[in-house]
Design brief:
The protein is about 35% helix and about 20% strand. It is built from six helices and six strands. It has a four-stranded parallel sheet with strand order 1-6-5-2, with helices on both faces. Strands 3-4 form a two-stranded antiparallel ribbon. Helix 6 links the parallel strand 5 and strand 6. The longest helix is centred in the middle third of the chain and has 13 residues. The radius of gyration is 15 Å and the shape is globular.
Amino acid sequence: MITPSYGRVWALGLHRGVLREAVHHVKFSGRQALGEALGRYLAPMVGELPDVVVPIPLHPVRQRERGYNQAECIARGLAAELGVPVAAGDLVRVRATGQQARRDRHARWRNLARAFAVRPGRAPAWVGRHALLVDDVLTTGATASAAADVLWATGARAVNLAVIAVSDRPVPVA
């Protein structure tokens, strides 16, 4: 069993039905305002007030293709509702990892190794603070864990995770 690097996880629900459709609209149909609204709805679920919200970054190529980062949209709504800052840009994806969907559990974790870093020249906002990572969907935890590793290594006091949905489909170990 692979142990995630983050602590607690908060989510609106399972990745199915209306919630799955909403995530799909945010991610693939440019519905950024919906992402912010989902973040606001997620805020009351968060059981520990963070000091800073950190969206999981996209690789720059993927972000240019999409035009925005869905996790950042969610993070903006969540942070506004919680009354804390968003540290967008402090954490960067330094390696294009491709889509995880067709990979088994172990391949997902290997694929994300060393995929994230602190933006060069930045003092990250999470140093000595409780950081809340934000993403759209939690499947195996590989992405969030790889990001959390960087936050821990660069001085975060605590790292938890908030997502819109948790996958209800187990990923094979292979």
